[in-house]
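Ticket #4471: structure output looks truncated?

Reporter: J.K.
Steps to reproduce: submitted the chain below (258 residues) through the standard prediction queue, then opened the result file.
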Amino acid sequence: MKLEGKVAAITGGTRGIGRGIADAFIAEGASVVINGRSEEKGQRALEEMGVGDRAIFVQGDVTETGVMDNLIEEAVKEYGKIDILVNNAGGAGDFAPVVELSDEGFDFAIKWNLYATFWGMRAALRQMIPQESGRIINISSVEGKHGKPGIAQYVSAKHAINGLTKSAAQEVGTMGITVNSICPGLIMTDIVNEQGAAAAEAMGLTFDEMVAQFSSESSIKRPNTVEEVAAMAVLLASDEASGITGALLSVDGGTAAY
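Returned output as attached by the reporter:
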């Protein structure tokens, strides 16, 4: 029960990595506030969790101004505080080489990934600084450490998130607050299965070829799992990780060079 009595807010928490982290936090004793765009998916997730008043859903599109402020406010309203924020929502959006990428496509990816993370961090820190404690975990990507063709807007946003993580960690390091990034490799979530063909095409590959390439680039020669990412999130959210901050922690099977 590493997170007993803690309150966590998780964006994109109805499925994929976000849902896996929510389940892991609940298993470790936390209460969770999950965010997502779909009310239907949110309510279904709560039913599947089956933990009563230890979980609530707050609907909202994180690319819209004010949604992250509302998420944190609802967490404090329901549970009296916010101990942990996981900025998980994000994605590539369009898949295209730089020469074909539209302003709108680039802007959307920056809002979905970088702005949502910034807005969430700012809202959470306004609560965490007065209480002199807190954990912020930003879900970045292995693409936040190197490049990949066809998803320059995503790569750019994830690199920026890692910089934001390091700067914020230095600002609040003496206040009992840690700020870290988790950088997953390829995770075979339902979202990857839905959008993977388009991503592979942008790389000039079939979906199976893309999975094989990502796997071959890692030391473990397979995709990582949601559970492996969630285990890292539990550690970073716990009191045991008080000395870890400003870190870009890979859960990528050894894909990244650093």
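Triage note (M.O.): checked the attachment and the full token line is present. Helices lie at 16-27, 39-49, 67-79, 103-131, 152-172, 190-202, 207-217, 226-237.
Status: closed, working as intended.
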